[in-house]
């Protein structure tokens, strides 16, 4: 028999948290937040439809009662304006309107009141603040009169049905949000595996086959074909030649010419839905190799098009990589050596490893004395020296507009210098520090832009040949592809592990990281942070301001923790920080500094409460769940004791 036969996620959570497993939620159970949810005055203008539906529910459940079925029932909003009714006869709505005019009384009226016209109303109040939000009214018949007490009891029943529907909207929103989050996480995971699968292929036919297998699996009702610019033989019937003599209005020709995505929606006929057609460029660094043509009997969503564009981009790069690989088989021994280098480069998705390997191979292939690799830092807008064998230049940087680096950046072309010692020309730190007379340099390209450069130097004049110059261009093309692969891989991993709103890590990443630390280290602390009265912030300023508050708090936390600490969005307005090999006393002081800074720097000003718990290798129960539970209980104590404070789990147990 299952542990939780009622199949309720909320009850499962309560059972795991140590509460009774009985499925009925007590009225005073503070862990079940839904029963505390309520409407505010700002919601009154938006709940009329919900009020009317609740009246229908109420009437359906009570229509067997004589006093109910023989009377007319109606609703007035908090401003005593007519909303709607059930069981009304002709002319009774006018009677209600006249009754409203005759009786202009305040919203703080008695529980029930009799009107001179025979119309009686019962005011109903919100369950937390007791604010008038609706009046249930009745026009009873002489044979079946409805008393004030009857109306009060029926009104309370109506109020409970209204809150039942109100809670349903929360549940529906939660399920919808969960579906969106799960779908987005699945999309990111799928995208990560797609790119991995495509970059595992090094033959054009294999890449094309893999690409069609991927899109057919994801979109079985959509038609795909690949139009290629070169007459390569392929047995797949969906690979066709791109006819450039077609009309200039042809979207595939236009996409191939401009490199831009083309999308067209064709209106449906005979009541059928609209059809969509799209052309995505199969583009690499060196050019456009074809067009990915998509035909759908229904309009694709924007995120689907974005995913297909990423697939096409990855396919274009792998397609280009494969083309270069096949061509390299027909070159001389040097190019076969480059093929081996390319293969090894593609085995790594870490920039540091790629750069270190490139330096070693370049020194061996060209028999150069000196080599450096520069990579553009987008934050400083300078080229940083990230690898090489020139100690004097380690950790240095170069302005992107100065010297030979500036020429490479502006012209996007390689440079060869045969006798710098005799004819210095442009000032070069690399040539001066290494004493080189010969130099060849080539840019690293990404999406048509220079994002790095490689310099090779030798003290002998006229040392590098023109063949070396051309060979370096081939090598840097492959290195550039590997760098792009690594950057794309890093971006996919970042998307899969980061929260889109705050930029913090997601909960799953935090769970896995803590588990790894508990297996590899001896201690650590966890801080759980919750923004105090965050619902009030949303109700007062709106959800956009609420999102901005979350961003502000997240930025403050990231600023005040160490590089090795892990900050994550736990859920909603709850955040968490794990401090590896930090005891709870030190974590408490960090948490206090975070709390104080948030109180001082947020706008609008908010405060936070926090709970700190730690673990060490001597504990009997070393687990992620135990650590989170103790930190969460400490957070509960901080909330319970007045908010805007940090509590440690030892205080709670004490």
TrEMBL record:
PROSITE patterns: GGDEF. Transmembrane segments: none annotated. One of its GO terms (biological process) is negative regulation of bacterial-type flagellum-dependent cell motility. Pfam families: GAF_2, GGDEF. SMART domains: GAF (SM00065), GGDEF (SM00267). Residues 522-651 form the GGDEF domain. SUPFAM superfamilies: GAF domain-like, Nucleotide cyclase. This is GGDEF domain-containing protein. The lineage of its organism: Bacteria, Bacillati, Bacillota, Bacilli, Bacillales.
């Amino acid at each position: 028999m299952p542990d939780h036969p009622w199949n309720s996620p909320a009850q499962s959570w309560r059972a795991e948290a140590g509460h009774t497993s009985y499925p009925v939620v007590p009225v005073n159970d503070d862990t079940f937040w839904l029963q505390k949810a309520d409407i505010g005055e700002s919601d009154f203008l938006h709940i009329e439809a919900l009020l009317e539906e609740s009246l229908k529910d109420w009437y359906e459940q009570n229509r067997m009662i004589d006093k109910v079925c023989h009377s007319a029932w109606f609703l007035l909003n908090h401003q005593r304006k007519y909303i709607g009714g059930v069981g009304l006869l002709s002319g009774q709505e006018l009677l209600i309107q006249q009754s409203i005019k005759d009786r202009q009384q305040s919203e703080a009226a008695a529980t029930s009141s009799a009107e001179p016209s025979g119309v009686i109303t019962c005011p109903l109040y919100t369950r937390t603040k007791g604010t008038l939000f609706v009046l249930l009214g009745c026009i009873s018949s002489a044979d079946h009169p409805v008393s004030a007490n009857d109306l009060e009891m029926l009104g309370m029943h109506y109020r409970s049905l209204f809150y039942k529907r109100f809670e349903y909207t929360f549940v529906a929103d939660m399920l919808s949000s969960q579906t969106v989050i799960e779908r987005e996480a699945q999309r990111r995971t799928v995208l990560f595996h797609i790119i991995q699968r495509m970059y595992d292929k090094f033959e054009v036919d294999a890449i094309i086959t893999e690409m069609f297998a991927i899109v057919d699996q994801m979109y079985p009702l959509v038609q795909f074909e690949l139009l290629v610019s070169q007459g390569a033989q392929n047995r797949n019937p969906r690979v066709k030649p791109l006819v450039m003599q077609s009309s200039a209005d042809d979207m595939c020709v236009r996409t191939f010419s401009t490199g831009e995505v083309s999308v067209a929606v064709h209106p449906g006929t005979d009541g059928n839905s609209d059809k969509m057609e799209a052309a995505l460029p199969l583009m690499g660094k060196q050019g456009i190799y074809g067009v990915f043509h998509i035909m759908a009997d229904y309009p694709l969503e924007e995120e689907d098009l974005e995913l297909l564009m990423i697939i096409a981009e990855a396919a274009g790069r792998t397609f280009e990589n494969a083309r270069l690989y096949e061509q390299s088989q027909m070159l001389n021994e040097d190019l076969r050596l480059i093929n081996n280098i390319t293969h090894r480069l593609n085995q790594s998705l870490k920039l540091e490893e790629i750069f270190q390997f490139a330096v070693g191979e370049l020194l061996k292939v060209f028999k150069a004395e000196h080599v450096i690799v520069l990579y553009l830092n987008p934050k400083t807008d300078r080229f940083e020296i990230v690898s090489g064998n020139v100690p004097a230049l380690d950790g240095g940087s170069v302005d992107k507009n100065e010297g030979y680096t500036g020429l490479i950046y502006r012209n996007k072309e390689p440079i060869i210098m045969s006798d710098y010692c005799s004819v210095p020309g442009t000032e070069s730190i690399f040539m001066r520090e290494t004493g080189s007379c010969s130099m060849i340099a080539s840019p690293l390209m990404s999406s048509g832009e220079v994002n790095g450069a490689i310099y090779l130097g030798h003290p002998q004049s006229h040392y590098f040949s023109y063949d070396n110059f051309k060979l370096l261009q081939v090598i840097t093309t492959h290195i550039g592809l590997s760098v792009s692969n690594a950057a794309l891989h890093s971006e996919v991993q970042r998307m899969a592990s980061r929260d889109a709103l705050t930029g913090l890590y997601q909960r799953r990443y935090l769970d896995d990281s803590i588990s790894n630390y508990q297996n590899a280290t001896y201690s650590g602390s966890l801080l759980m942070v919750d923004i105090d009265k965050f619902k009030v912030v949303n109700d007062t300023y709106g959800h956009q301001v609420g999102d901005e508050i979350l961003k502000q708090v997240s930025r403050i936390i990231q600023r005040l923790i160490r590089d090795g600490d892990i900050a994550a969005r736990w859920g909603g307005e709850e955040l968490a920080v794990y401090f590896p090999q930090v005891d709870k006393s030190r974590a408490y002081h960090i948490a206090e500094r975070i709390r104080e800074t948030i109180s001082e720097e947020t706008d609008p000003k908010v405060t936070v409460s926090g709970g700190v718990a730690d673990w060490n290798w001597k504990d009997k129960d070393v687990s992620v769940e135990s650590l989170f539970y103790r930190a969460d209980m400490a957070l509960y104590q901080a909330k319970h004791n007045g908010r805007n404070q940090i509590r440690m789990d030892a205080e709670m147990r004490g």
